[in-house]
Structure formats: C-alpha cells, structure tokens
Design goal:
Elements: H1 9-35, H2 38-47, H3 51-68, H4 72-96, H5 108-126, H6 131-145, E1 152-153, E2 158-159, H7 188-201, H8 203-206, H9 220-227, H10 229-251
Antiparallel strand pairs: 1-2
Helix pairs in contact: 1-2, 1-3, 1-9, 1-10, 3-5, 3-7, 4-5, 5-7, 6-7
Length: 252
C-alpha cells in the first residue's frame, strides 16, 4: 500500500479467509492424489459449488489493492513470476516424483499477475472513469463472458465459433483448446472484469472514506495471512503434500 494510507485491516482479513478456504478446498484434492482416498475427490467436487465465492472475494480485493499499490505493474510482474515458479514445479518437478496431471500453466497467480500489469498500464485512463459506472460495467462484463470456457457468452445466448478454440496460445484468454490442460485454470477473460470491479470499487478505499470498522483489526491471524497471501499460497501445496506424504508413510 501507499505509505501515507491507513491500512484497511478488514481487506487483509477477508483475503486471509479466502486464502484459507482455497487451501481447505485443495486439501481434499491432495488427499485423493497423495493418499489415494477417493472420498477426497468427492468432497473436493462437492465444494466446487461454493469455490467461486472465495475466488471472487480474493480477486476483487486484489483489484482494490492494485488501486492502493505504489506500483501495480511491478507488483504484477512479481506475481506473474511466482506463477512461473508454480509452472516449473508442477510441470517439471512433480511429474519426476510420480505425480500426474498436476501441471499448472495458467492458474490464479498467472491470471492475477496479468490483470495487475494490464490495470497498471491502463490506470491513467481508468482513473478518469466514474468508479460507480466502472464497477457496474465491469461486473456486467464479467457475467456476460462468464461461460466463455464452454464456448458461450451472454448466459448461453451467444455461441462462439469452434475455430476460436483450436489454438493453445489463446487458452489464457479463455478460449481453451482441446490440447491445453492446466490443473488450476483462471483465464484472463472473464476474471479481469472481476478484478476491474474491485479496482473501481477501491476508489472509496483510496479516498479513505470506508466505514471506520474496516480500518480496525478483528483477527490477527486472518490479517497476517491476508498480508502475506502470496507467500502463503506459494507454500501451501508443498506443505500439504509433505504432511500427506508423511501420513501415507506412517499409516498407509
């Protein structure tokens, strides 16, 4: 955050809660992958119903924080580089350890990094748009493009040409080709519009006009996790895998 701004602890806390929900969700997938217990997959699939809620919360807050950032482009480059580390580990190292279908070529960190860079570059223009109009239009565009992965937009009323979905290099945009696979997949479209919804909604935060309760700290733990969300996210899978591998060695 900019040095002269009051810290909005509630944003840290909500982001921390969203990260913990993500980790809790991933844990059941890891239980299936590492321990071979099929009920892990069952629970993971059941929780997929609610996962867009904490995805949205995390991405909206990331958008808000980009408005408060000293340098959104630099921050985006760092996050995108961390996404590259995730790709290296999941696509090169983990297959050597016997784990299959773990490759993450364009996950949440890749998406957030690109969104931060694009937003940072466009910020001189975006700041001229009324934040209420910007937030409403961005959210409407998110809903409009939400099903782009399935080849449809506008709530299924418009079908896109199949030819658009034949090129792997377009998959990060949401036009996922048949030969592109990413265990964690967050295409730029539609998620950049959710990010921009947060960016525009961050105007009152930038002006320090939020309710006073949002500047108060309610949970030290959630606040800590939220402030260090990038590093917590990077560390959570290695930690989960290590714990589950130890459990498999001792009890299975």
């Amino acid at each position: 955050m900019q040095a002269d701004k009051k810290r909005i602890h509630m944003l840290d806390e909500v982001r921390g809660l969203a990260i913990i929900c993500m980790i809790f969700h991933h844990m059941f997938l890891d239980i299936g992958d590492v321990l071979g217990l099929k009920w892990g997959y069952t629970v993971f699939n059941k929780l997929c119903i609610v996962q867009p809620l904490f995805w949205a919360a995390f991405i909206i807050i990331s958008g808000m924080c980009s408005r408060l950032s000293r340098n959104a482009v630099k921050r985006g480059v760092i996050v995108l580089a961390c996404g590259g580390v995730i790709t290296l580990v999941t696509a090169v190292i983990m297959p050597l350890m016997g784990f299959e279908k773990t490759e993450i070529y364009f996950g949440i960190l890749h998406c957030l990094g690109v969104c931060m860079i694009i937003t940072g570059l466009l910020m001189p223009v975006l700041k001229k748009i009324d934040y209420r109009v910007g937030a409403a239009v961005s959210f409407a565009l998110f809903l409009f493009f939400y099903d782009i992965e399935t080849g449809n937009i506008c709530f299924g009323l418009i079908s896109l040409p199949e030819s658009w979905y034949q090129y792997a290099f377009l998959s990060p945009l949401g036009l996922q080709s048949p030969d592109f696979y990413s265990a964690d997949y967050f295409p730029v479209i539609p998620w950049i519009f959710m990010f921009l919804t947060g960016y525009f909604a961050g105007k009152p935060a930038q002006d320090e006009k939020l309710p006073e309760v949002m500047y108060q700290k309610h949970s030290g733990f959630l606040s800590f996790v939220g402030r260090n969300s990038l590093w917590v996210y990077l560390a959570h899978q290695p930690v989960l895998y290590a714990i589950l591998l130890i459990i498999s060695i001792i009890f299975i």
